[in-house]
Amino acid sequence: MSALVRRISTFLRSPRGQQLVERGRREMAKPQNQARLRQLAARLSGRRR
Q1: 29 three-class SS
Q2: CA-to-CA separations, 39 to 8, 31, 33, in angstroms, rounded
Q3: Helix axes 15-28, 31-47, angle to 10 degrees
Q4: N or C: which end of the chain has fewer CB atoms below 10 A?
Q5: Domain boundaries defined on the chain
């Protein structure tokens, strides 16, 4: 495992990392954020063609 991946996984297991993960889950449960993410995914997939 690379040093960067190791650092990220250590951070995600830390209390601060867990807080950020939980905040992300709460934000993604909101319909307006889900719609925003779908729009972004559609824009990005359109560029690859």
Answers
A1: coil
A2: 28, 12, 10
A3: 90
A4: C
A5: 3-47
Angle at 18 between CA 16 and CA 21, to 5 degrees: 115
End-to-end alpha carbon distance in the chain: 33
Instruction: Give the integer Cα–Cα distance in Å for 8 and 49.
Output: 32
Give per-residue pLDDT as tens, 1-49: 799 999 999 999 999 999 999 999 999 999 999 999 999 999 999 876 5
pTM: 0.66
Q: What confidence score (pLDDT) does residue 49 get?
A: 56
